[in-house]
Amino acid sequence: MKRDPIYGMMAEFDSATALVEAARKTHHAGYKKIDAYSPFPIEGLAEEIGFHHDEVPLVVLIGGLVGGISGYLMQYWMSAVDYPLNIGGKPPHSWPAFIVITFEMTILFAGISAVLGMLALNGLPMPYHPVFNVSRFSSATKDRFFLIVFSSDQKYNAADTRKFLEGLEPRSISEVPS
Amino acid sequence: MPEPLKNVAVERTPVIQPGYTFGTVTEKISAIVLTRPASNGWFVGFGIAFLLTMMMLFAISYLFVKGIGIWGVTIPIGWGFAIVNFVWWIGIGHAGTLISAILLLLRQSWRNSINRFAEAMTLFAVACAGIFPAIHVGRPWLAYWLFPYPNTMRVWPQFRSPLMWDVFAVSTYATISALFWFVGLIPDLATLRDRTEKHWLKIIYGMLSFGWRGSARHWHRYETMYLLLAGLATPLVLSVHTVVSFDFAIGIVPGWHTTIFPPYFVAGAIYSGFAMVLMLAIPIRKIYGLEDFITSRHLQNSAKVMLATGLIVAYGYGIEAFMGWYSGDRYDAFTIWNRLHGPYAPWYLSLLTCNILIPQVLWIRKLRSSPLALFCISGVILVGMWLERFIIVVVSLHRDFLNSSWGMYYPTRWDWMTFIGTIGMFLAAMFLFLRLLPAISIFEMRTLLPEAEVKEA
Q1: Looking at the partner chain, which of B148, B183, B220 has a beta carbon nearest the beta carbon of A115?
Q2: The domain A6-53+132-177: what is its CATH number?
Q3: Which residues does chain B have within 8 Å of residue A129's beta carbon, measured at their own beta carbons?
Q4: What is the pLDDT of residue B185?
Q5: Where in chain A is the domain with CATH 3.30.70?
Q6: Mean pLDDT of B313-323
Q7: C-alpha pair distances (Å), A74 with each of A92, A101, B145
Q8: In terms of CB atoms within 10 Å, which of A174, B131, B249, B384 comes out highest?
Q9: What do you get for the CA distance between the two ends of chain A, in Å?
Q10: Is the peptide bond between B37 and the residue preceding it cis, with omega within 30 degrees of 0?
Q11: Which chain A residues have a beta carbon less than 8 Å from that of B194?
């Protein structure tokens, strides 16, 4: 497959309010493959660009269950099956004593899967990305807000999209080479 | 007609002084790392801390050569400085997690300017704590036997022992604290990547930031993850000192075998942790000119947390004394009597002075808002909390059921060198952290600015 030389069209905004407004209008105008960039999390922005399914909680739930169950079974198997040892007359399967480690393993696995799950779903680490080709984009981690329409969008057309973005009164517009 | 309510909120010191923008907040915090030259004071401070770290390494090396006999631990006091310091350090770490996780869940936005270095403090304190049990086991090169791994001896650890619970609790705590701290840094590392002029620094920060670009989808998952991690860290931090207290409470030694231990240990941990936060925050904000971000509101709030947890600790002491009498157990009663009149009575009385008596001055608003006074009171509390662990470990062990097995504990110079050395290691790590990473969370500070609010059209 031939790679599109243009990755998308990017507009720069001054404030969070302007970005949310622009994202809403762009999405309503029928552009589906868009993204927004901001120097801090903005509540509701992801919904405006059509992002509704966050799988992180599911990953964490699965991680926690795996951690808890394997933690308990590990202790059960080691203390009651593989190497039963009489400690102070306690039964080999003394479940109340196993709760603490079961709990800790639940937290450990859930926490690790939260971080790794977030990174994996976000496709990180990704040291190179086409948006970094725009020199103004370095302000996206400081005080500027960006909106991009990807060239893979069905409605994308260099001239029309530029014209549409200009209508949103951005600070600047740049074409993003891929 | 009801009296019109006075707007108290307006009179409070703000969390961040007015007049800042996204740009100036970013520049001010990242400049400490990127452009500000290291001062002579920094080199002197780091040099002293580094020398103390070397002293610790020397003491530990000598321990490995000679064995535990160079310490003051003997029977009946088999748990000397090593366990006292372990409990003290791990308790200090708790404030960092409380600030970053529990206050996040409680929507206390003032935490945003102190959570980063408080988390770093947690990490370094846990690292200091972790040294002690490892070198205390007698044959430290076999410390990995604590973990359940398939081995040629075909045995497994003993999971009914609170010491095993402790291994899991502390290692989970260290892992989750490190993760929490690092993911919190990712967006700020991206900021440093985009701010620095040096090419090699750009590459390093770029790699460390995982190529973070601030996409709305990424932020959404990030926020979900951060909130869930906070939700997981909250019960975790409460469990860690609870499990540490089980090391004592599950035993039958008088003075240890009590149900008040878990809550009173957790409160004591937060008490000493906030004292350490203040002892770090007060000089840092002064030296790096961060008074606009770490305002007197932060100091006052921390002081109030210390006051509250200090009173819980006082309640714990009260219940211990009450149960010594009410239980009718002559050994419990003797432990209390021995604390007040035995050979360690001066230590116990200093503990009561440092932890209960002196901190009551925090009721006075004037002292709560004076950085110098808070710094001194925090120092007193840290000493007091160290004494508390000393009393719990040593005084309970030195006179137990049989007076034929009574004894005294005398720490040696090696005990002191190791303990003071860990303080040096903690400070050395803190000095490096301040120069290499943003000490205040930049992206969370941006959310506190009025311009971060999205106005509906």
Answers
A1: B183
A2: 3.30.70
A3: 211, 213
A4: 92
A5: 6-53+132-177
A6: 91
A7: 13, 10, 16
A8: B384
A9: 14
A10: no
A11: 138-142
